[in-house]
Structure formats: C-alpha cells, structure tokens
Amino acid sequence: MNRYPPIADHGMVGDLQTAALVSSDGVVDWWCTPRFDSPSVFAALLDSDRGGFCRLAADLPDSEAGTVRQLYLADTAVLVTRFMGPGGVGEVADFMEPLAGAAATDRHTLIRVARVVRGSLPFSLICRPRFDYGRARHDLTMIDDASAVFSGAGQDLYIQSAGGPVVLRSDDDDITARFTLSAGETAAVVLTSMTAGGPPPPPPTPDGIRARLESCWGFWLEWLRSSTYRGRWRTMVNRSAITLKLLTYAPTGAPIAAATMGLPEQIGGERNWDYRYTWIRDASLSVRTLVDLGFTQEAQDFRRWMRERLEAGSTASGSPLQIMYRVDGDPHLTEEVLDHLEGYRGSAPVRAGNAAADQIQLDIYGEAADALAQSRDMGGIHGWKAMSSMLDWLADTWDQPDEGIWETRGGRKDFTYSRLMTWVAFDRGIRLATQFSRPADVGRWTFERDAVFRQITDRGWSEKRKAFVQHYDADVLDASLLLMPRVGFISPHDPAWLSTLDAMDEELVSDSLVYRYDPEASPDGLRGSEGTFNLCSFLYVDALARSGRTGQARYAFDKMLTYANHVGLFAEEIGPSGEQLGNFPQAFTHLALVTAAMALDEELDAADARSPRKHF
After folding, report:
1. pLDDT-based confidence at 145, cuts 50/70/90?
2. Which residue range forms the structural domain that includes residue 152?
3. How far is residue 292's CA from residue 300's CA, in Å, rounded to a whole number?
4. Residues 298, 213: one domain?
5. Segment 252-308, tens digit of pLDDT
6. C-alpha span between 532 and 162 (Å, rounded)
7. How far is CA 285 from the centre of its chain?
C-alpha cells in the first residue's frame, strides 16, 4: 500500500450526502460521514498512520508482475478497480446508492464488490477506521464471522460480508480477511455508518447487492438523460456533470467546493484549506453551468437554499450574505488546526473549518444575482424581495476594499474583480426589475451600476500594462478577470479586452496553463508558491474562444484535458511536473471545463456555418 498515493490517483463515489475517495490501490483513504463536512472515518490521505483506511484489493506476491487499471462504468458513478496478474483478472467495484431528494440521514452505506473474471486471484481486506479525524478511540465488537461493528465518537460503523469465502477476523481493534476467488465468483463487503446505538443494518445478500448496484447504475444513466449537451466533448462534459452532482448535498441543494480538506497547493507547504463547504461564488457559477446543461432542478434547489440564506437576515458582519456556509446553511465554520495529523506527504498544518468565512468578498453578490437571474421566477415573490434588499444594501456599501475572490490573507484591497461582479449584480437586478415590472429602486441601481463601470475603466485599467489589473494600487494581472466578456461587461472583441488577454498570455500563461496571479508581485500573506489554477486555465479557453481565437482555444483545451486523471477528474491545481495539487475533485474546475467546452463548441459551430467543410 502506497503511504501517500498521488492526489490524482483516486476516483470518487458518493450518495449525494457524503463522498469517499478510492485509490487505484483499492484503498478508501477518505470518507467523512454522515455529511461532506463531518469529521472523517477514513483519512489516511492526510495521515497514513493515524487517519484510517479500508483496503480491498487483489493480493499479488511481490515477485509477480501485475497491472492495475481504474475506470468508471460509462456515465455513472460506479468505480471499478481492475487487477490483472499472471494468475487471473479480477476487479473491485465501489459505489454508494444515491439518496437523491431524500431527507438528511445519519445512515450511509459504501458497498465494495470483488469478483474474478479469469483465472483466480487472492484478495485481502483491511479495515482500520479512525473516528473524528483520528482523534477518537474506538471499540470493536465481533457479531459473527460475517459482521462486526466499530464504535467511537458517537458513531457506529458496521462491516458485513455477503457471498464468497470472506471470513472477518479481528486484528486488535481492526478487521482483516484473506480469501481467494476463481472465475465467476463474487464477494461483497458492505460498510454502513450511523449514529451510535441505532438499529443494525440487515445482513446483505448477493441478490440485494446486485439490485443496489443496478439501482445506482440506473440512477446515473437516467439523470444524464436530462443533459442537453450534444457537443464534441460529451465524455468529459458528462463526467464533469456527474462530479458536480456528486458534490451537491441533496437535502438542501447546496454544492460544496471539493470533497476533501487539507490537500496541499504546494507539497510541504502551508496552503492547505478545508473545501467541504458551500461558497456562494462557486455554487452560483455551478448553477449557471447546470442550467446551461439542462439540469434545472438542481439549479432551482440551490436558488431556494440561497434565498433562505438571504431571508435569514444579516450576518455577523452586517452583510446580507456570508461568503460560505455549511451545507445545511449553518454560518459557523470555526477553523482549527489538527496538529496530530502529519498532512499529505508532510504538508502541514492540516486545517478543519475555514476562517475565510468571516472575510468580506463583495463579488459574491454579483454571482448570487446572476444565479437568481437564471430563472424567470427569480425564486418567487420572496426571492425577489430578498434580491432587491441585497442590491439596496450593495448600493450603499460596494465602494470599499475587500479580500477578493482568492481569499488572500494579506489585507483588503480595491479588487477589480469584486467591482466587476458588483456591476453584474446591479445589471442583473435592473434587467429583472424592468422585464418583470418588479418594485425596485431602479434609478439608484442604475446610478451605482454606471459608477462602478466608470471606476473600473478609470482605476482598474493600467495604461502602462494596456490591461485591466488585479486591484487599483498595482499593475498586477489577475486571471479572475478572464470572466469580463462572459458576464457581459466588455465585448470579447474590444481592443481593451484583447490587449488584456495578450498581457495575460505573456505573464500568467505557461503552455496553456494559467496562474491566478503572481504572489511575489502581489503578496497574499502566505508563504510558498502554488501551481497553475485549473479554473483559470479553462476560463482562458473560454475567453480565447469568445475572442475569436478558436484555433488557440481548441489547442489549449485539448492540452488541458490531458491533465485530467485516469477517470476524468481534476483537483484544484497543476504542479510543475504536471501533477495534480489541492483539494480533489474540485467543483470550480469541472464547472469551468463545461463552460469552456460549450463556448468552444459554439464558436466552432459558427465557424463551420460560415465556411462549411468540403467533404470528398
């Protein structure tokens, strides 16, 4: 077992309330339950010794050559890890049955099915849960040789076997098993987490496992039928759509930023954050992407969640919204350092919670307004009242420094992107109020919208750089401004925009990969460096396509897709050797991939219509 497999060496399974990562070693090394933002049961990804894991894999002698391949069953979230050795070919299928539309529950089940399709193979099972991020002790109770229960930190984790020659054995407070399967034989291991003292799960049966697998498979195939995407990159777009769905907490409709916490932006560095929460920004952009793909129910669910946040009243800072929340809307995300954990390959500190929740980031109001504007009903009468109150507040407060989109910890500044999205907020509000004759102070909003526009074009433009810049006090470039044409602030063919794009090409782009900004030129209050930012690399493709540079855009997009992992997933960043860095998988990256693919399809289709290709 690799102590710290590459971040990219994982697939993800989930039930729409929680998610687990499975490495190509057959190891579940990350699972938080009963929610995405709950303490972990398995967290070997952050500490190989203390974090806990569950391994189910073919057990080949070191002397035998073997090959391992991992894949998803097409257009589903069923993950298959295949083991191919001289003695035979086997596989482990991992899945969680989706709880779509279900109320929040404390009971979650991860099913692992081993089978051999050729020859015979030995398998081993090791289950070592470590509750509460590895801080809590647990007790093991053997029920019989096919079932046992781990109890700790107010949770019970049942392990049960079904079919095949799997005999569970205690190993101190852990469970092990060794068994051999021949061609056509199958064995299953079922992990069920619940609140301590709850009724035990019924014993699994082979027929029951098969029915649950077919249910999971069928759910994803049926869900994808709603997609309207028919473009050139359907496989990658479908995988990104499934990933966005897996990262959405079904009981409230709130998407999280990533499934993990603490994975580093630089190996050995301190940029290790907890992304298991709902950012207004990320989630709002996800809504627009899902609407563009035809998934209207998911967008409606999130708009309802966000409207409830607005209706809840002012935050502790007096603003209508906090930048992020827990998936149930709880605004309390106290950050703590888990100093007992080593961190991924020594990347410490490991943080749970996120202190950035208390920051002022004014751009979120633009993203929120844009998300509400994606629906003609705007969230109903109550939704409009909440939105108009938000814009009235923004009209009084927008002209102030903030921490910006990247949540820097180097002090507040007048960030151009924050002003850009302030302009979006007023623009969308004015359009909706006018189109649907809603009561609003349209005159005030129009005055403020125009004031924001003038300020950006006067102070956010650097005559020296011939480009829009990160903030008003420097000439630093910032890739977040790649969104300027997409949100309608400037034409993608405007000379000022094209010169901005050229400046970014020169300073922020490295072989089609894009850095967010230069930390040395614009200190962000943190030590160390970071990789290129996948979100920005896909926004770059989008901006190139919209600006008519379709050849360059397509080449950049195709190269970017080569950085996906073996099952089509992306983390937050790409490191200097092409490795994936940061929390994984990241929703921001996958929504930007979809956006880039759709923009590129549109421009390529238009080009084909203007100059039809000759067919010989």
Report:
1. very high
2. 10-201+209-223
3. 13
4. no
5. 999 999 999 999 999 998 989 999 999 999 998 888 898 899 998 998 899 889 989
6. 45
7. 12
How far is it, in rounded angstroms, from Cα 311 to Cα 333? 20
Residue 455 placed within a domain: yes
260 lies in some domain? yes
Instruction: Read off the CATH number of the domain in which 162 is found.
Output: 2.70.98.50
Q: Which two tokens stand for residue 555?
A: 């080449």
How many whole angstroms separate alpha carbon 21 and alpha carbon 585?
Answer: 9
Say if residue 614's pLDDT is above 50. no
Check residue 291 and give its pLDDT: 87
Mean pLDDT, residues 526-547 taken together: 88
Q: Give the pLDDT mean for 313-321.
A: 80
Q: Global pTM?
A: 0.95
Counting the structural domains of the chain, the total is 2
**C-beta separation of 286 from 255 below 8 A:** yes
294 vs 85, 218, 261, 474, CA distance in Å?
A: 43, 19, 30, 41
The three-state secondary structure class of 194 is strand
The answer to whether residues 268 and 214 belong to one domain is: no
Query: In this structure, what DSSP letter does residue 102 have?
Result: P
Residue appearing with tokens 């469970």: 175
Q: Output the pLDDT for position 616.
A: 32
Q: How far apart are CA 130 and CA 51, in angstroms?
A: 6
Provide the CA 481 distance to its chain's centre, in angstroms: 21
Q: What is the pLDDT of residue 317?
A: 73
Q: Is the pLDDT of residue 521 over 70?
A: no
Distance of alpha carbon 435 from alpha carbon 65, whole angstroms: 67
Quick one: pLDDT at residue 615? 36
